Batch of 2 targets.
Target 1
Amino acid sequence: MLPFGRDVNTLSSDELVRVKAAGEGLHGFVDTVLSRRTASGADDVVGRLLAGESEDRLSELELFANIVLLLIAGHENSTSLIGNGAAMLLGLSDVRAELARDPSRWPAAIEELMRLVTPNQFIRRLALEDIARGDHTIRAGDAVLLILAAANRDPEAFPEPDRFGFDRPNRQTVALGHGIHYCLGAPLARLEGRVALQTVFERWPAVRQAGDLVYANNFNVRLLHSLPVSTS
């Protein structure tokens, strides 16, 4: 993940070696997954992607890229939501009290946490045509960074954007993307986040932060290395 959340010119020689080794290891892992699915003919996500390749809908490179996308997006972003969501709730005793009183509010809490946390801070897009925005024109072919975290705290869309609110009338965040790029795993991400966080705070109602948060050196995906807590 290092090259996806850092300026590659800031990577040390040691980090570049680690990136290369990790990339080769990931490539080998995906090759193993593909060979096993090809032999077994399994009817799962990878099996269906392989079927798409055999019918000339996906190239081998596209197949590999999609599997890596599913692997990373299904792990890093969910990890970010759960870790940062827990850290935020540890500082919101009133929200935790409301969730303890009425557990049916957990789905609304997850929506608000996704807005406030925004696991993937920005996404890259390529303009397909000229687009005028204010005094600026984005030209066809230009690369654009869309700052999802900023959009999710836009005061015109979300009054008092830094406040946690269960009953916001506007739930159209962009934490999971938008339009044809909307997250394929959105229902699973919501479910994982709710089950994980609800379980933690119901099992240890007295849990509290017991040390400093330590984050990964990545300016895109907000990943916690550690969140020290005490359960007593």
Target 2
Amino acid sequence: MLGRTRQRLVQDALARAAAPDEWLPAELARGLPPTLAALRLLHQPPDDSDPAALEAHATAAHHRLASEELFAFALGVTLRRAGRLARRGQAVPTPPELREQLKDYLPFRLTAAQRKAFREIVADLTSGRVMHRLLQGDVGSGKTLVAFLAMAMVAETGGQAALLAPTEVLARQHATTIGRLLKAAGGRMQLLLAP
């Protein structure tokens, strides 16, 4: 009974629905039915429809709706990114000499990957745009050291920086590592733990 009522309501809605304007780019819509036709094909499949394709969500109608969903998601991400890039941030003006001095605090040379990551962070910090960056790497690859250099760069220009850790154990490990590095430079650090 409930299934028949739902089917009747869907059929009624599809009969009354007006076709929306085409908004999917032509190269993505090529060979696919329009949105309303895709919905009708899925809710009222013709008798000659391939049941296996319907079950596997592999029909042109499925591809149409999936393409719209992916395009809408990608468009949203692009618009959010454009909005972020348009926002002004506070530039952290640092001369190359300061960056080299910060690297000298380290007891060893940075790897090529660490230098590249630090250069990209420096470019973001000095650009005057809001930075949104994820520093990713294997355990022991030196992410904390690269983050330390970025934080030290901000601190050397009169700002403050914070490094957040997901666990107390990791927070204490980072505090120990950064504390050793700051000892040589005469910097200050405070470990804050949630109660």
